[in-house]
Amino acid sequence: MKCPFCAARDTQVLESRTVDEGKSIRRRRECLKCKKRFTTYEKVGGSALWVIKKDGRRESFDKEKVKRGVLRAVEKRPISMDFINDLVESVEREMLRSQKEEVSSKSIGKAVLKRLRRIDKVAWLRFASVYLQFEDLEDFAKAIKE
Description:
Helix content: 40-55%
Family: Belongs to the NrdR family.
Number of helices: 5
Low-confidence stretches: none
Organism: Candidatus Woesebacteria bacterium RIFCSPHIGHO2_01_FULL_40_22
Order of helices and strands: EEEEEHHEHHH
Keywords: ATP-binding, DNA-binding, Metal-binding, Nucleotide-binding, Repressor, Transcription, Transcription regulation, Zinc, Zinc-finger
Mean pLDDT: 89
Shape: elongated
Largest sheet: 3 strands, antiparallel
Function: Negatively regulates transcription of bacterial ribonucleotide reductase nrd genes and operons by binding to NrdR-boxes.
Structural class: alpha+beta
Distance between the termini: 55 Å
Protein name: Transcriptional repressor NrdR
């Protein structure tokens, strides 16, 4: 590990502990050259999960793309960033638990809708209007009735 202060490569781990529900390791380190301390985090690398889009294209799963969609839906709603981050993480875990290398964008959308519906009906309707491609007021009325 390279020291962020002096760029020396010799560092010593002083303390390690798991964080983020066991998904990451936090390490407190000390540079052996300049003696300054810093913290590093280790996470499992990106998932090998592919998304099959409606038009048949394949692209790698992008947690940030899911997050952007949720952020648009919850704009000006009383929903915390912690909730949004947890929602996105839980959707990713659900997709990974399916033990498939490829998941449909439809299954990702359904997973997001399921979680939003429990928390905020307006955010759910906003997300649904894009995900389900509402075209007119009748589509909104039908979704609200259901």
